[in-house]
Amino acid sequence: MRTDLPQAIYRKDYTAPSFLVDTVDIGFDLDPITTRVATRLTMTRNPDSVNQNIVLNGEALELVQLRMNGKLLTKRGYTLQGGILQIPDAPDQVVLEIETLTHPEKNTSLMGLYVSNGNFFTQCEAEGFRKITFFPDRPDVMAKYTVMLRADKKKYPVLLSNGNLVEQGDLGDGRHYAKWEDPFKKPSYLFALVAAKLVCQEETYQLKSGRKVLLQVWVEKGNLDKTQHAMESLKHSIRWDEERFGLELDLDRFMIVAVGDFNMGAMENKGLNIFNTKFVLANPRIATDVDYANIESVVGHEYFHNWTGNRVTCRDWFQLSLKEGLTVFRDQEFSADMVGTASGRAVKRIEDVRLLRQVQFAEDAGPMAHPVRPDSYVEINNFYTVTIYEKGAEVVRMVQTLVGRDGFRKGMDLYFARHDGQAVECDDFRAAMADANRRNLKQFERWYSQAGTPQVKAETSYDPLAKTFEITLSQTCAATPGQAKKLPFHIPVAVGLLDAEGKDLVLHCDDGASAGVAGTLVLELTKAKQTFRFTQVNEQPVPSLLRDFSAPVVLEYDYSDAELALLLAHDSDPFNRWEASQRLAMRRLVKLTDAARNNEQLTLDPMFIDALRGVLMDDTLDPAFRELVLTLPSEAMVAEQFSVVDSQAIHAARQFMRGMVAQGLRTELLNAYETNLTPDAYSPDAEASGKRGLKNLALSYLLEWADESTCQLALAQFDTAHNMTDRQAALSALLNAESKAATKAASKSLKRFYKDFKNEPLVIDKWFMLQGMAHATDVAAMRALMTHPAFTLKNPNRARSLIFSFCNANPARFHAADGSGYAFWAEQVIALNAINPQVAARLVRSLDRWRKYAPKAQELMLLALQKVANSKKLSKDVQEVVSKSLAA
Fold it and tell me: Where is the Peptidase M1 alanyl aminopeptidase Ig-like fold domain (predicted)?
């Protein structure tokens, strides 16, 4: 078995580039079989470098010709080995001319220049530009680009690149050209080109300064009716960034292009954002409420990168969270502000935290755990993770919590004033925040350098005579790969105190606290253990701890059920109301799982159902919030509560609880369904989508006790739905119900769904996804689905929709006792590795925590991991994750 890894790259070994690039003139003669690329670089020796050689990266390229200062270089004048081209003895000023050939049609990795549906696209982050030409392909080499595109006019009528269009015309031989100039320096990972048959929706938009810019959304013909929401999201993003951070669009135009074959969600190339179609195309017929929200979020995210990532970029890839964590925080704030209400912001916050807890906390506890600013990597593509993005965003949010919203804006202003046009480090962002607010954030740096999820334990005591209430907080953090010992973090813990009626007390704290919102103080935990004393407390309070999830930690506090019920019913902090419901549910799910594992009788106390009834019937609460409260913790979240995971017992426990809730609240659920119908024309606004969310959750519960009436309710919704949200929800409810009537109805509905949408790729992705996640889908069913003519491994969306859904979101079937799920997983990893290593490596993560399972399951998982490890031509991407998983 191969466990050896390619050489790791370490942050401590960073050295400055030997030469800086001033300008890049690059021309393309585009042909799908062989594209000729001519590049002219003006370069200057970097006085900060100790390396005397010019160092260029190249991968999967044919070098045709290389000239330095007009002189043709033979093989004696350079070395080319292991994807690195070096030129010794270069003068301080160099003009380097490079001619290369690349083969876009064969490029299934979707990195560099590739062909999708007959059109040309690029993806250069992180290291894709080296598949286009030889170049110092690193983010700290920033240059101004001029791009010439030449192609067949009939086949590729649209020619796009970064920046501003300065010239275009015919070449007289059926070909045409377009010349683009980007006035801003950028690293090579932000380069982009598109040559395609596309149409666009465009608008002229006036910025707050009065300057007018051109906005374009480019799509394939037939999709133009699906671009309005993306356009509106772009305009909202531009306006929000002007108002919240004073940041203006700096180009004359801004373009979004949608492509069906794309490894990522989208890419922030300067002025030419290339998007996965999933995050552009929407109309009520094909897109759900979640799709609409995701499009707004991702459009915002990529636009906000124009400043946090493009104008100020990363010195090296270890600093990836400098741009990604900060920009995720910005898109989260944008999405919350677009809802506009306090409850809407709370719903958004809860959704973000659910993702963090379910995916990032699990990553922190596994073999791929790494700090927000990693110390090393083998393949950078493996570090586009939830730790970099979502935990990185939480780190930025904690800064805002510590310095306040106005202080955060001051810090952002100073950050741009200091570093516009530079490639910098995470420490530079932290320094700007500290200096702008005169705060000592030195200890806060540990959030960047230490991996793992801190555990914060809270203990309280009340003195009725002195009328004081003490909260003692202690913190620990488990060892992670390469980090056995952790120093104390700087943790903001937002707290409130509730009286017996659930009202906020006025808070008086001796020290160590800063003002928060009304009724809330932010305690700053900086030691292993600290005690905070509140005075003038006239009665025993119930603490509301970690309000708004003020830090990405696991909070331990021994709440009683009665205290949780009080918080659920009355806490002024919506997040902690939801959190109380999750604690009540999780407490019971853990007991039910233990009972199921021991073949004991399963029971659920009426107190829990009564608590949910109170929320469900409370019309003062937004439907979206009630939906979140009534959504039980996922099976993955329950699994995190156990040192040894039994997927079958967890599934049985959660299904039992769902069934008991459905039975106990049947009347209330029917009422919630009927009172939250949305018969008017479809709108994705928060109010309407919230009603649909609660209604469809009610439907899924009602199908737990499927009879003729509930099946007909779901079928009627499926048949008459005037939007994809309701249609997909009805189909999902039927697929996951266990009665014969529901199974028959689901089979019929699946066939009709496919027939109605077979020409809509994004909807067929949903069709595959629903079946991959369905409780009845086993490996045999998966193999049958993979033979469907609409399925292909080559399209990342299609592979994710079916295979990833089964392996990551159907644990009871994936973790089948016979190990068939693991054997299936190994086959798909090996197949994907040969096509698209990035996608394959992400699938490997489904088994990276194999040691959490029972010995028999471990044995079967180990066989599957070893099969992958021993396969031929294993990519760096897959090899790194498999090796770390085996070594854990």
Answer: 452-558
Global pTM reads 0.98
Could you tell me the residue range of the domain that residue 499 belongs to? 455-570
| 302 catalytic per annotation | yes
Question: What is the length of the chain?
Answer: 888
End-to-end CA distance of the chain: give it in Å, rounded.
16
Stretch 584-613: mean pLDDT, rounded? 98
* Residue 387: DSSP 8-state: I
Structure tokens at 279: 């995050």
How many whole angstroms separate alpha carbon 396 and alpha carbon 415?
Answer: 13
| Residue 609 covered by a domain | no
- Among 220, 302, 425, 579, the active-site one is 302
Single-letter amino acid code for the residue at 804: F
Same domain, 56 and 171: yes
Structure tokens at 820: 């068939």
How does pLDDT run across 304-324, given as a tens digit for each residue?
A: 999 999 999 999 999 999 999
Cβ atoms 332, 606 nearer than 8 A: no
Q: What is the residue type of 9?
A: I
What is the Cα–Cα distance from 210 to 677, expressed in whole angstroms? 43
- Cα dihedral 606, 612, 618, 622 in deg (nearest 10): 180
245 occurs within a structural domain: no
What would you measure as the largest C-alpha separation in the chain, in angstroms? 94
Query: Cα 22 to the chain's mean position, in Å?
Result: 34
pLDDT by residue (tens digit) across 761-797? Answer: 999 999 999 999 999 999 999 999 999 999 999 999 9
In a domain, 723, yes or no: no
- Written as six digits, the tokens of 754 are 């496919």
- In angstroms, what is the C-alpha Rg of the chain? 28
In our burial notation (b when 16+ CB lie closer than 10 A, e otherwise), range 110-130 reads bbbbbbbeebbbbbbbbbbbb
Residue 791 sits in a domain whose CATH number is: 1.25.50.10
Q: Phi and psi for 486 in degrees, rounded to 5?
A: -115, 135
Nearest one of 670, 539, 665 to 612, comparing CA atoms: 665
Helices (H), 787-848: 796-799, 805-809, 811-814, 820-835, 837-844
Domain end (from 416, 449, 482): 449
User: How far is CA 570 from each of CA 217, 498, 558, 576, rounded to the nearest angstrom?
Assistant: 46, 9, 19, 10
Q: Are residues 153 and 31 in the same domain?
A: yes
Pairing of strands 112-116, 71-72: unpaired
